Amino acid sequence: MTLNELNTYISSYLKIQDFPNDSSLNGVQVQNSEPDTKQITKIAFAVDACGDTIRRAHLAQADMLFVHHGLFWGYEQGITGIHYERIRQLILNDTALYACHLPLDAHREIGHNYALARQIGLENLEPFGVWKNTVIGVKGGFTKPKSIDQIINAMFTDGAAPVTVLPFGNKEIKTAGIICGGGAREVEQAIQQKLDVYITGETKHESYHTILENKISLIAGGHYETEKLGLKLMMEKIQTEKDIPCVFIESPTAL
């Protein structure tokens, strides 16, 4: 497939047009030299567009880099410094850059939030969590109550650990809300809906006492770690349906 053909396919599947309030420039952010004719023979996936992932995408001989966090965020930015260098390397290597932010958070089949909900065993899933006037999260219940440690073990099957755990709520957890990534302040929506635990990527100092006094538990699994699931599922979909080889580039931040 060419870049333009892939753009049409991905944008339609992820319903990018349904997220006008997203500050990310979703879709093709940097094209290649021949978007209508050059075949994309390999795609690299990564959480962030940065010097490391751009370099490693080229080393992996990828024609396209697909990321969750791209290079453009809704404001004018001079092509200088590291911003220039990142774009220069993409153009020099003829690597296209495709970014997808909120649509990849919210997608009900392969999005980060729904993927994590299924991974930890949540059922009766419903939309939850408004961010920038858009519902992007998910909530649900457990058939059998779980402990916070059981949920953490289900989140991190490789034995890794979350960044922050605030176990201030019920010991037996029956309900959960999820907004992966930077959903720190949205814990207040979980409190309003009387959920037992709120799962996100990171939390804020100013939220600590609100969480404590409202007796809710919070698991901050890491902004980076909680935003890999959707990317990997999108990668699997493209490999299976379009028969394009893909590679996932790990460039963790521990945050």
Descriptive overview:
The chain has ten helices and eleven strands. Helix 8 links the parallel strand 9 and strand 10. It is elongated. It has two domains: 98 residues, NIF3 (NGG1p interacting factor 3)-like (Udp-n-acetylmuramoylalanyl-d-glutamate--2,6- Diaminopimelate Ligase, Chain: A, domain 1, 3-Layer(aba) Sandwich); 119 residues, Udp-n-acetylmuramoylalanyl-d-glutamate--2,6- Diaminopimelate Ligase, Chain: A, domain 1 (3-Layer(aba) Sandwich). The longest helix is centred in the last third of the chain and has 14 residues. Helices cover 33% and strands 25% of the residues. Helix 5 crosses helix 10. It has 255 residues and is an alpha/beta fold.
Treating each run of at least 4 consecutive H or I residues as one helix, how many helices? 10
Please give the CATH class of the largest domain. Answer: Alpha Beta
- Strand % is 25-35%
Number of strands: 11
Q: What is the distance, rounded to the nearest whole angstrom, between the alpha carbons of the first and last residues? A: 35 Å
Number of domains: 2
The largest sheet, given as strand count, sense and whether it forms a barrel, is:
6 strands, mixed
CATH superfamily of the largest domain: NIF3 (NGG1p interacting factor 3)-like
CATH architecture call of the largest domain: 3-Layer(aba) Sandwich
Encode the helix/strand succession as letters. Answer: HEEHEHEHHEEHEEHEHEHHE
